[in-house]
Amino acid sequence: MKRNSILKTFVLAVIFAVTFVTFAFAGTAVIQFSDPTVTRDKTFNVACKVKSTDVRLKTADITVQYDAQRIEFVEGTNAEGGAGTIRINGTGVGRGSGTQTLEYQLKFKALYAGTTGINVVDQEVTDTTDNLVNVTKFGTSTIKVNPTNTQSTDANLATLEFSPGELDREFDPSVTAYNVEVNSDVEALTIQAIAEDRDATVIITGNENFITGMNRVAIDVTAPDNVTTKQYVLNVTKLDTGITDGNTTITNGQRFTSNPYTITIMIKPDDVPIPSGYKKLTGEFGGNTIEAYGPTNIVDGDTPEVFLIYGMNQDGVMDFYRYDRRNGDNTIQRYVAEANAGNYEALLVEYNDLGTKYNEAAKRLNIIFPAAIVLVVLVVILIIVLIVIIVKNGSNRNKSAYDKYKDYSDDDDDDDDDYFRNARPTKINRASSNKDSDDIDDEEDEKDEKKDVKAEPDNYEEDIEDNLDEIEDLG
User: Fold this and answer.
1) Considering the domain boundaries, does residue 448 fall inside one?
2) φ, ψ (nearest 5 deg) of residue 300
3) Which of 146, 159, 161, 231 minimizes the C-alpha distance to 196?
4) Cβ–Cβ under 8 Å, residues 155 and 226
């Protein structure tokens, strides 16, 4: 056991030592770019170098991004790509692999005047022992494109595109302010702002680290004369987090913006009826006397904050429109008739009818309710009486004969007791009890016959006389 422990400790020590040595002697490097200045429509090169001071480099794999709207990628050393992304993968130019510097050349064409750049988004560098090199610094390239025409005063944008989100209206070079709404997880916009004059310069500020609420992004355009400027503003509203319902996040603070809406007031034709619940009003609005329509219960001479007008919209549709001037909103929308909308008089009549019906029902209820209570009490009493009678009859049927005698008075009870005390017991003839049941029946029949003779003696004598008469007749 002791030897195994020593062996394990030794192995761990070796692994630690190897790891430490490898880490301690890992190579380091930096990535650098050149910063060219060029005239618009000209091609130019950007140099990309990977330098190390402690190891010899073998190869590099680097991915860079650029603004494809301003510069166009043409070709490069061990490089391919386009549309804003280039991958550099190889040993470089010159002495290349096996040295402490790897160099790559990237060729572009300048499309628009202004300042743009190139930056690293991913990298992997190895030394001649195939170990990864630790890149400690990532450089960027700043490219300045000068105009070819310095006399132009055009500072307009030709296009303005971004993501995520969208403008609250269609882009117009003459309109310089727009509203944008983004979700709570958006920190910045990806903006493509292209000037009408390719020699004009465009600079974007404020497009980072959005806070909840209003954020201001400025797009400054400078004309080729370097004097004329124009600023476009994006008012970016970052919405609150909102609430979560299951797997769905409900946005809080969502805004809706309507396009400008213009109504031309027209004189209502006679064959067009006034909407139900409204009446004709005449008031002054905007310095002019107009014909409007308000609720029928409004006082004459007053103009409500919400009323109807008859007019024609921008598409030539004539109809009633609702005008709302509460809190200075001054909004207009197509009027849609609703059931009983504004019909205050009809609603009042209906309300009064319901009140009358309610009072009548209450009076009837005041009469019926006490009578119902009395009836319920009588029914309860009747039920109780019936229960008592049923219980009493049932108890009488269950009494024995002896219990009935006990119901007499105390005197009767005494007489009965005397009777039973004076009564003598009857002797039982044991000999007769031993006779057969047939003998007993014969004796009973003889006794009955004797009783019949005793009971009818006259008839017996008449029978004898009748028999003597019959003998004489025969003789």
Assistant:
1) yes
2) -60, 135
3) 159
4) no
Is the pLDDT at 106 greater than 70? The verdict is: yes
pLDDT band, residue 22 (cuts 50/70/90):
very low
Number of domains present in the structure of the chain: 4
Exposure on the CB side of residue 65, measured as CA atoms within 13 A? 3
Give the residue-averaged pLDDT of 152-158: 91
Dihedral (Cα; 455, 458, 460, 464), 10-degree rounding: 170
What tens digit of pLDDT does each residue of 318-364 get? 899 988 887 777 788 888 876 555 455 566 567 667 777 777 877 77
Cα→Cα distances 409→396, 413, 420, 422, 443, Å: 18, 7, 17, 21, 45
Residue 446 domain flag: yes
Is-contact 255 238, C-beta < 8 A?
Answer: no
The span from the CA of 354 to the CA of 348, in Å, is 10
pLDDT score of 54 more than 70? yes
Residue at which a domain ends, from 342, 360, 380:
342
Where does a domain end: 342, 363, 378?
A: 342
Q: Do 114 and 37 reside in the same domain of the chain?
A: yes
- Rounded to whole angstroms, the Cα distance separating 152 from 186 reads 37
